[in-house]
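User: Predict the complex with flavin-adenine dinucleotide.
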Amino acid sequence: MKIAIYYGTETGNAEMLAEDIATELEDAHETSVADLAETAPEALKAAELNVIVCSSYDDGDFPASAKPFVEKLNAESPDLSGVRFAIFGLGDSEYEATYGFGSMKLADLLVARGATTLGERIVHDAAGDDLPEDLALPWLAGILETA
Amino acid sequence: MSAKIAIVGGGPSGCYTAQALLKRAPDLEVDVIDALPVPYGLVRYGVAADHQGTKGVARQFARLFTRQKAQFFGNLRVGEDISLDELRAAYDAVVLATGLSADRPLGIPGEDLPGVIGAGALTRALYEHPDATDLPHLGATPLVIGTGNVAIDVLRLLAKTPAELHGSDLGAGPSDWLAAQGIERITVIGRSPAAAARFSPVMVKELGELSRADIQVRHPAPEAEDALNLAAAASSGPLPIEFRFETRPLALEAIERGLRLTVETPEGEERIDASSVISAIGFTCDGRLDRAGLLAEAEDGTASRLYAAGWFRGGPTGAIPQCREEGQALAARILEEITPDPARPGRTLFAGREGIVDFDHWQQIDAQELAAAPDDRCRRKFARREDLLRPALPQDA
Ligand SMILES: Cc1cc2nc3c(=O)[nH]c(=O)nc-3n(C[C@H](O)[C@H](O)[C@H](O)COP(=O)(O)OP(=O)(O)OC[C@H]3O[C@@H](n4cnc5c(N)ncnc54)[C@H](O)[C@@H]3O)c2cc1C
Ligand SMILES: Cc1cc2nc3c(=O)[nH]c(=O)nc-3n(C[C@H](O)[C@H](O)[C@H](O)COP(=O)(O)O)c2cc1C
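Assistant: Here is the predicted structure with flavin-adenine dinucleotide placed in the model:
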């Protein structure tokens, strides 16, 4: 399958996870990794499945590298019907009131433009003991079984 | 291209620069040198003990050494254990990412009195930096000068109950010290108006959520919705933390039970008595390297083969995200300007030198610290340099 992996990051954790996901999938699939900062919303139409990893920052805001993408989504209102994506959040439960908001808001925006979510969005908790890849790889494997 | 690059300083700036260099050019020889036996700079010794999520970037930095083939040379202070000139002769480029560790002086009479401590020195002691001074006695009514995020970090730690420190890596000594201070009220003063204070709203919000905090703002700013006023409204614990803005320190004097600070306010001069004073007004160069001269040289990297990054280059203000962004830009610039010379020895310069520790050494320390963590802590740091060096010594049978 053609799988495009995108990351929205502030300090690089999401980028690292995106690379881990690509490494995991590259034997069985045709993968690519890109920063959301350098991605046009329309580009999501090119892959059969888009995997998005996105953190949260400052009081539930998008991380810096997701912001230009979000601005384009808002300004250009592209029609993303037919686009399929799975989204994995990075967050920190110490920010209780806005835990995982970056990935949540991004998912909402994509759905509002017509895209479909595959699987449940889950969030890695930087204040917990799990490693992001230990959550994300099984999560994605489950999604791929049904995709 | 197999150019050889030495990065002096293993904090966020040095590590992100190395990461970006190796991402663009995986064949580079990138060496990260640090004066401490352990890597990561302020991620380990500045980012607060109760902000473990922020320290998560260390996992990326570890990959530099475990996957991207950078090498770590710890316990090696450039300028003392090895000269910068020697290093510059051995590498195709040298990046100075040594940070700014000295507390910026208050610049007022009495600033050196006993009972006055810089936030950098205090946080190093709290976070068990091997070169830290002893923890001071703060007394019942400490006063904090400065309203940036470092000041808020200090306030938060002073205000937390022992239970609110669960999950942190605050050591046993510092935890006992905190519990024993018996702080009854904290005053915070800042020169700027409230609206211009440097702290980030999230940090103030977090302070307002602590069970003991009772945030008060003298002369609240009219914009009642700002983070500080919201935190003041939300907090009602037993420990008053009073913020005073547009308050400039003029002089400190010793009084019988502590210190007296004379301040200038819009209403005129005032005196505030305190049991101790913590200055959190920024950082400066400790003077061990000639910062101004080196920065001037680093402007022309093609000629000097010298570069500067992070706080050492830009001053003590950016946070970790900025280190990443600048590290990526710097890496691109270095790769444009560098001319490798195979005659330069690179890391073979260190062969046979005593005392240097490598990344494997840090992994042992790391594993031991994690394994030794008590139930309510995520790590137990080794505080003394000799303990941080121990795995490097031949193992006793
Ligand atoms: C108390 C405090 C709390 C902070 N909290 C946060 C936070 O929560 N979130 C955030 O984003 N930012 C935070 N920051 C800011 C962040 O720490 C800085 O942006 C960042 O650390 C700057 O990175 P640096 O690499 O330039 O310097 P540093 O992190 O200081 O690293 C410099 C490294 O160089 C080494 N070194 C120094 N001199 C030499 C020498 N001569 N030879 C060899 N090695 C040397 C040092 O040992 C150190 O490891 C905080 C800063 C402080 C002071
Ligand atoms: C200043 C700051 C604010 C944050 N705000 C939130 C937040 O509102 N919600 C959340 O779930 N995580 C928050 N986080 C946690 C980050 O999303 C988490 O550390 C993540 O691993 C960062 O990934 P990145 O490096 O890809 O940006 C915050 C972290 C910091 C340092």
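The mean pLDDT of chain B is 95.
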